[in-house]
Amino acid sequence: MNSESVNALYGYSSELPLLKDKTIDDQLEFLRSLGVNALFGGYEKPELVEKAHSKGMKIYAELSCFVGQEWWEKYPSSRPVTAKGEKLQCEGWYCGVNPSVPAVRKELLGQLKDLLKKPVDGVWLDFIRWPCHWEDPHPCLPRTSFDRGTLDRFSQESGLDLDLPEERERAADRILKDHRSRWIAWRCGVIESWVAQARRLRDRLRPRLTLGLFGVPWRPEDHGEAIREIIGQDYGALSQSVDVFSPMAYHLMVGRKPDWVGKVVDKTREMTGRPVWPVVQSVDQPRTLAPSQYGQVLRVAKESGGRDGLIVFTAEGVLEDRDKLEETKRIFAQD
């Protein structure tokens, strides 16, 4: 990995404001003038990739893993079942997928294999978790998945003879009462084992490519240790397979102050021992993000994990606001 600090914009498109009327060369020069040296997106265009690389810029991609209603339709068993025995519902655009389903796991590895053939410098795993729409100050924390297939896999892989009642809610109660710690560890292992497979595939096909992970920005004490109990992301274990951790530190979405970003980064580095490239928001969600506060978040991130790398979500959020554009240039240009 390059020792130079990475200043990345997520969601690059040649049709974004301030870019769509420029040639590819002019787009890249404009972005470089802001201090941007990496983009998430654009790898489908060989000319862009070639010219970006010639200018010393990196091109990264993401792989959306366990998310999407289309998985429910293709593999009905991938729709999680809650502790109440009910099928999980979508929360707005978010439809979580059961990450233990063998067919989904196999197909995602195939998608990763195809992506590794592209001229990208790194791939970040996204939605690599058990279901939870976390981007809220008070998120719903569903306990999943208590369908028969998942419970059978848990029983077989943990070596437990569960002898569970047929009623899903009673089965869930039994597991959470009698086998809670084993259940939590197994669910974390479901995520870890797929990421380990992804790492081995990367090592075989593109050993120099960076494997990153977009992580939920919860510390162990947040939401009753939900990072492991609900999400199933054990950062310490995942560090065996992941090169770079990118906690999605969207402070405004989760109702936090800018200094929270630094705390998330510090804790992530402590738990993983890996480089941390935090993702900070530039978008106006759930309300307008003042450019001055956006600039403050950039500074906090740069003073913590951002010295290794920093990702701004999204490119459009920066390029459609002149004041945010200037804040980005001011902070990125310090490198």
Secondary structure layout:
Blueprint: E1 6-10, H1 24-33, E2 38-40, H2 46-54, E3 58-64, H3 69-74, H4 102-116, E4 122-126, H5 148-158, H6 168-178, H7 180-205, E5 210-215, H8 226-229, H9 235-238, E6 244-247, H10 259-272, E7 279-281, H11 291-303, E8 309-313, H12 315-319, H13 322-332
Parallel strand pairs: 1-2, 1-8, 2-3, 3-4, 4-5, 5-6, 7-8
Helix pairs in contact: 4-7, 10-11, 11-13
Structural commentary:
- With 335 residues, the protein is α/β, with parallel strands linked by helices.
- Helix content is 41%, strand content 11%.
- The chain has 13 helices and 8 strands.
- An 8-stranded parallel β-sheet has the order 6-5-4-3-2-1-8-7.
> Can you give the mean pLDDT?
96
Q: For the terminal residues, how far apart are their CA atoms?
A: 17 Å
Q: Over all CA atoms, what is the radius of gyration?
A: 20 Å
The share of residues in helices is 40-55%
- Number of helical segments with 4 or more residues: 13
The first-level CATH class name? Alpha Beta
Please write the string of helix (H) and strand (E) elements. EHEHEHHEHHHEHHEHEHEHH
Quickly give the structural class: alpha/beta
CATH-derived architecture:
Alpha-Beta Barrel
Strand content: 5-15%
Overall morphology: globular
The beta-strand count equals: 8
How is the biggest beta sheet arranged?
A: 8 strands, parallel
Q: Write out the CATH superfamily name.
A: Glycosidases
Give me the CATH fold name.
TIM Barrel
Order the strands across the largest sheet as they lie in space: 6-5-4-3-2-1-8-7
